[in-house]
Amino acid sequence: MTDLTTAQAAPRISLFRETRRYALFVLLALMVVGFWYAQPAFIRSANLFSILQAVSVVAILGVGVSITMAADGFDLSVGSVAASSVMAASYAMVVWQLDAPETMALVLLMGALIGLVNGLLIVRLGVPDLLATLATMFLLAGLQLIPTGGRSITAGMVLPDGSSVPGAYDPAFLILGRSRLFDTIPLSVVVMAAVALLAWFLMERTRWGRVFYAIGGNETAAHLSGAPTKAYRLWAYVISATLASLGGLIVASRVGRGDVSAGNSLLLDAVAASLIGYAVLDKRRPHVLGTVVGAIFVGVLLNGLTMLNAPYYTQDFVKGVVLVGALALTFGLGKKR
Amino acid sequence: MGDDGSDPAPSACFAFPTGAEGGRQNLFLNLHPTQLKPSPLPLAISAIAVSVTGIEKSFGPTRALAGADLAVAAGEVVALMGANGAGKSTLVKILSGTHAPDAGTITLNGKTGTLASPSAAKAAGIATVHQATDQAGAAGLTVAENLLLDELCRPSGRFLVSARSIRRRAREIAALIDLDLPLDLDFVDLRPAERQLIAIARAVAAKASVLILDEPTSSLSTTEADRLFAIIRRLRAAGMAILYISHRLGDLAAIADRAVVMRGGRIVGAFAKPIDFPAAVAAMIGRTLEAAAHDGKISTAPIVASIRGARLVPGAKPFDLELRSGEVVAITGTLGSGKTRLLRALFGLETLAEGDFVLDGQPWLSSGPARSIKNGVFMVAEDRWQSSLLPPEVPGASIAGTIALPHLKRWFPSGLLRAARERKVGSEAISRLGIKARGPDDTLDELSGGNQQKVVLARWQAAPCRLLLLDEPFQGVDVGARADLIAAIRGSQSGSATLIATSDTEEALEVADRILVMRNHSLYEAGDGHGSLTDQVDKVESERPETFDD
């Protein structure tokens, strides 16, 4: 109620606030320097780009998740959408013999449709977001196994009906995941940067982004201000699932086959990136820049630890520690106003 | 928070002296009275049950209480009156242990002490029934379990309780105030009046010596209110000290033995029975009421909006309403009488059972907020935090962004936001309405209630308006800010009409050219600007609905 107090207290807490604002950047810089010192090969550009390449899919999925979170939703199906996109892309090329552009268009369309189903479940039928997307997550995780009888898709594989598949991966398709721009920057990193830039612009600089956040902050207020809140929430899920299928395309073109286990950890990594992003610039809300920084933060940490011979099975533990720390930073410390 | 048992203080999850005495010793200097069992024998009126002297409380630079003195005797109903922001609720929060006073003493049954927490206040025998009745009990539990909530929560209580023993004990507690609710009903299915009775029953069962009722009739029908009054009289006869907060004069006349008026954090007047309400109202506002309709002339301006043969609900008496250009019309009436429903129907959020709206000569049937806003029909819904404002971490939660939200499409047709445009409108609103803020980038949570409401009003004055609908625009707004708001509402009448719904008659008189009373979902004429203003208050007050069927 009586809040002129903050006006007086503002200068005193500002230093603290500034520290919090850039805390993750400072930690990231410290980490890079530390790994560099411990293992000079860490700082080589090939390694740095391999980190970015490794996080590009997580970052793209995380951007989608953070857009649904901005509209006070949650998309648990992104991991499954990406995984089924891997299978769908492989199936389209290997079984149906489609070429690269057709495959990509088909997969992205499939992603958009899944997003539409998610959105309609949530907006039309009123199913709570977590439950609706949990359900589609299970549904897709199971569905992707059915056409091949649970096996990975490779050229020359035998389908459940006993026939041998006619096609193979279109070489042009592999460009997405395996080529490098100017022989240095992986194309998937360029795609990630483009997605991040577009999404950042949408969410931070346009009125549509403002309305997404307004809906997330107070849906009633947004509705009473004339915003078509249901349409916006529907769009959030369509965008999220489409980005997830884009992530799946990158995975497919990197792996070069329809791997049933692809995308296993993508959901949790993407959600973690979005949540770590809350702490970036002390925004305390999902945002695109934060999500990308969050994904890179985890990527750098894992890459560095791997270089220092940390065993692979510690990775989830490390991610968990970062997530707990970031959330504590966001919500806990110095929250009192 | 308060008496709902959510207080984390480990010392007391509800010690009250019906049974085992465990957990009470470290509370409130053991002040608990033993003499006040609800008995039919009236105690001596002279025994002061609770008194406060020189209570001061500041929140930052705002002095909510500046030396308040108040005493309530056992067996007495004291009405605490005061405008919004006078300090009533702060005083209640101090008495119920929610806030600690900065200075002053609290004396309970002759002993001075402090109330460290809501549970301490409760253990000391002060029970508070808050306006928000959803906190009077726990959803998911039955009526019986809610009646026994205090006993069930007591650390020293029995580990195993049988359904039969709960029902038996609940029946005993219900009998204390003749509560005849089905004991198996879930708390969430109860109406506000019933929840309130449960809270009172719990207070009586806990042998509270002081009962504080905060705006208890605000959501009650007349029959429900009468029933509440009967219970209050019974408790009074049993020797309970009752502090009754309301600004509904009709209620106070019916129940109060004494009226105490607060203004600016102090007690500015005390009125013994028979209470001189006009004088009390004058003391409350600090001046005699000044109505907006000074001349009482009937407006001849062109009609902006009209309602013909409207039935808000099937079976209600149909009514007509004409709103003229430049006119401010207030609708008053109790909660649930249909004021909000009428505003929501005009804004396109609900449909009429019957009848037509006309806006600028054209039939008006809005499909929803988007269409209404496009056509210049704006609504400020009640409860600004829930209906209008964004939490501070969201982009657009600043003053500038709050004002801009409904106008984004018109201001930024390309989709690209330009912060300068928003900030300009925000700065203009800050200076025009006298909003106390550092600048247009301040978030709304940093502002006081009155300043928040000014921002919400500025939002809807930032675009050309035909019909402005304001639902309880002065809720939680202090007197000074209310004057600014009224000036802003009355000042910017460029051909539009304003319709205000308020349950507060004084507010209606201060702001409106014309006042209508809504009862049972139908409209009746009230004051027309003629006659003394207090007469008008009385007239409007006497128009309270006889019955209201939910």
Automatic annotation (TrEMBL), chain A:
<keyword id="KW-1133">Transmembrane helix</keyword>
<dbReference type="GO" id="GO:0005886">
    <property type="term" value="C:plasma membrane"/>
</dbReference>
<feature type="transmembrane region" description="Helical">
    <location>
        <begin position="22"/>
        <end position="39"/>
    </location>
</feature>
<feature type="transmembrane region" description="Helical">
    <location>
        <begin position="288"/>
        <end position="305"/>
    </location>
</feature>
<protein>
    <submittedName>
        <fullName>Inner-membrane translocator</fullName>
    </submittedName>
</protein>
<keyword id="KW-0472">Membrane</keyword>
<dbReference type="GO" id="GO:0022857">
    <property type="term" value="F:transmembrane transporter activity"/>
</dbReference>
<feature type="transmembrane region" description="Helical">
    <location>
        <begin position="51"/>
        <end position="71"/>
    </location>
</feature>
<feature type="transmembrane region" description="Helical">
    <location>
        <begin position="185"/>
        <end position="203"/>
    </location>
</feature>
<feature type="transmembrane region" description="Helical">
    <location>
        <begin position="78"/>
        <end position="98"/>
    </location>
</feature>
<feature type="transmembrane region" description="Helical">
    <location>
        <begin position="234"/>
        <end position="256"/>
    </location>
</feature>
<keyword id="KW-1003">Cell membrane</keyword>
<dbReference type="InterPro" id="IPR001851">
    <property type="entry name" value="ABC_transp_permease"/>
</dbReference>
<keyword id="KW-0812">Transmembrane</keyword>
<feature type="transmembrane region" description="Helical">
    <location>
        <begin position="262"/>
        <end position="281"/>
    </location>
</feature>
<feature type="transmembrane region" description="Helical">
    <location>
        <begin position="104"/>
        <end position="123"/>
    </location>
</feature>
<feature type="transmembrane region" description="Helical">
    <location>
        <begin position="317"/>
        <end position="334"/>
    </location>
</feature>
<dbReference type="Pfam" id="PF02653">
    <property type="entry name" value="BPD_transp_2"/>
</dbReference>
